[in-house]
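Our consortium's second objective concerns turning raw sequence data into structural hypotheses that experimental partners can test. To show how far this objective has progressed, the report includes one record in full. It was chosen at random from the queue rather than selected for favorable results. The single chain below, 104 residues long, was entered without modification.
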Amino acid sequence: MSLSACLDGGRDTIDASAEDAMLAVTVAAEFMGTVVLEADCRDETYHLEPGDELRIERAHDDETCSYDLRIDDDTVRRETVDATEAVTLRVTGSGSIAGATAPA
């Protein structure tokens, strides 16, 4: 299941149908913990449920995005997505992180 609705009080719309994203996070349906993404580039905190997919699109070509990904209140990834790259992360059923960084 992918998100096509608004998260966190309706302040930011998630475009889950787009093929390319600056930052994409998918949570396995069988994951039973909490997943929170803080994206400084949107000044938003997203609470993801099992089976959710979050995609953050670039607002302009040279946009960067610093983010913190927390699982069960532990920061597991803190990075900045450069203007020339795209990051895809998956929270597995066991809570581990599978990720890839590719040229944008």
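The partners drew two points from this record. Confidence is low (pLDDT under 50) at residues 1-18. Residues 58 and 70 are 22 Å apart (CA to CA). Both points have been shared with the crystallography group to help prioritize constructs.
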